[in-house]
Amino acid sequence: MYSLVRKFIFSMQPESAHEFTIKALKMAGKLPFPIFPTPDNPVEVMGLKFKNPIGLAAGADKNGEAIDGFGKLGFGFIEVGTVTPLAQDGNPKPRQFRILEAEGIINRNGFNNLGVDVLVENVKRAKYDGILGINIGKNAVTPIENALDDYQICLRKVYEYADYITVNISSPNTKNLRSLQYGEALDELLSGLKAEQARLSQKFQQYKPLVLKIAPDLTEEEIASVADSLIRHRIDGVIAGNTTLSRETVAGLINAEQVGGLSGKPLNALSTKLIMHLAKELNGALPIIGSGGIHSLVSGQEKIDAGAKLLQVYSGLIYEGPGLIQTLAKHIRLKNQ
């Protein structure tokens, strides 16, 4: 069935197909019944109880427009965003490109979104009863040395409405953003965010986990340094990882030369390697959410076996359809469960 849907969707340009899908899921979200059941494979991570360990990665629903529709596909959790304090158009179009032969996607979107206030209103209207994460970023016009200000603005605005908040410092499509993953810059960012989290926790009398999303292109030494910062600042979780700048797995294929971050099947091995190294450095100090290239039960299980507690998909959903969510949620074998 999905092969026919995919043929129709792939007849459109990638961004047009995405916009069509969001509209369709907004309509589907109003149905009084689920499109697909939510498989029961419960897991508790970061003090939160997930119906199953399979989540929607950020980037699919940047503005939280189709939360209820995505919720009807069987996800155990949904992450919306990345959202910034102010609305921004992102990078010039075209900015999304399929690599069909490899089941990959390159994007250079640049945090295009309608701003945090619009997202919050959409979240408030949603009826989804699963775990909801909100992914926050900085505006392109904000100097990198003032990035903390943008993250704190977003954190304050979304805190009440999220089950957890993800700090995205690993998109390759916002100038200098990835520099926040290193050394003093990372320590200053995490210190400021933890202080804001403490204030908000007291204000709302509820602790909301703070998660960091990192890039898969880090060296082993850089992974060790990031892990040290995560532990020292008592960050609650880490998403490993974002899209990659590497083209090693798609060299010579159509669209492989496009600038941007590569996601989908070609990213699978690299993101699994990141999880493995990160798990070794963290030694159980905080949970890892595995993301990047999951396209089958085998690829998902590899990430769990490498040390992930939860999984996120997006490009795999585009290429494989909702059946991938059902398969993963029903059959993934969790460690220590």
UniProtKB/TrEMBL annotation:
<dbReference type="InterPro" id="IPR012135">
    <property type="entry name" value="Dihydroorotate_DH_1_2"/>
</dbReference>
<feature type="binding site">
    <location>
        <position position="62"/>
    </location>
    <ligand>
        <name>substrate</name>
    </ligand>
</feature>
<dbReference type="InterPro" id="IPR005719">
    <property type="entry name" value="Dihydroorotate_DH_2"/>
</dbReference>
<dbReference type="InterPro" id="IPR050074">
    <property type="entry name" value="DHO_dehydrogenase"/>
</dbReference>
<feature type="binding site">
    <location>
        <begin position="242"/>
        <end position="243"/>
    </location>
    <ligand>
        <name>substrate</name>
    </ligand>
</feature>
<feature type="binding site">
    <location>
        <position position="241"/>
    </location>
    <ligand>
        <name>FMN</name>
    </ligand>
</feature>
<comment type="pathway">
    <text>Pyrimidine metabolism; UMP biosynthesis via de novo pathway; orotate from (S)-dihydroorotate (quinone route): step 1/1.</text>
</comment>
<feature type="binding site">
    <location>
        <position position="264"/>
    </location>
    <ligand>
        <name>FMN</name>
    </ligand>
</feature>
<protein>
    <recommendedName>
        <fullName>Dihydroorotate dehydrogenase (quinone)</fullName>
        <ecNumber>1.3.5.2</ecNumber>
    </recommendedName>
</protein>
<comment type="function">
    <text>Catalyzes the conversion of dihydroorotate to orotate with quinone as electron acceptor.</text>
</comment>
<keyword id="KW-0285">Flavoprotein</keyword>
<feature type="domain" description="Dihydroorotate dehydrogenase catalytic">
    <location>
        <begin position="43"/>
        <end position="332"/>
    </location>
</feature>
<feature type="binding site">
    <location>
        <begin position="107"/>
        <end position="111"/>
    </location>
    <ligand>
        <name>substrate</name>
    </ligand>
</feature>
<feature type="binding site">
    <location>
        <position position="82"/>
    </location>
    <ligand>
        <name>FMN</name>
    </ligand>
</feature>
<feature type="binding site">
    <location>
        <position position="213"/>
    </location>
    <ligand>
        <name>FMN</name>
    </ligand>
</feature>
<keyword id="KW-0560">Oxidoreductase</keyword>
<dbReference type="InterPro" id="IPR013785">
    <property type="entry name" value="Aldolase_TIM"/>
</dbReference>
<feature type="binding site">
    <location>
        <position position="293"/>
    </location>
    <ligand>
        <name>FMN</name>
    </ligand>
</feature>
<dbReference type="GO" id="GO:0106430">
    <property type="term" value="F:dihydroorotate dehydrogenase (quinone) activity"/>
</dbReference>
<keyword id="KW-0665">Pyrimidine biosynthesis</keyword>
<feature type="binding site">
    <location>
        <begin position="314"/>
        <end position="315"/>
    </location>
    <ligand>
        <name>FMN</name>
    </ligand>
</feature>
<feature type="binding site">
    <location>
        <position position="135"/>
    </location>
    <ligand>
        <name>FMN</name>
    </ligand>
</feature>
<dbReference type="InterPro" id="IPR001295">
    <property type="entry name" value="Dihydroorotate_DH_CS"/>
</dbReference>
<keyword id="KW-1003">Cell membrane</keyword>
<comment type="similarity">
    <text>Belongs to the dihydroorotate dehydrogenase family. Type 2 subfamily.</text>
</comment>
<comment type="subunit">
    <text>Monomer.</text>
</comment>
<keyword id="KW-0472">Membrane</keyword>
<feature type="active site" description="Nucleophile">
    <location>
        <position position="171"/>
    </location>
</feature>
<keyword id="KW-0288">FMN</keyword>
<feature type="binding site">
    <location>
        <position position="173"/>
    </location>
    <ligand>
        <name>substrate</name>
    </ligand>
</feature>
<feature type="binding site">
    <location>
        <position position="168"/>
    </location>
    <ligand>
        <name>FMN</name>
    </ligand>
</feature>
<feature type="binding site">
    <location>
        <position position="168"/>
    </location>
    <ligand>
        <name>substrate</name>
    </ligand>
</feature>
<dbReference type="Pfam" id="PF01180">
    <property type="entry name" value="DHO_dh"/>
</dbReference>
<dbReference type="InterPro" id="IPR005720">
    <property type="entry name" value="Dihydroorotate_DH_cat"/>
</dbReference>
<feature type="binding site">
    <location>
        <begin position="58"/>
        <end position="62"/>
    </location>
    <ligand>
        <name>FMN</name>
    </ligand>
</feature>
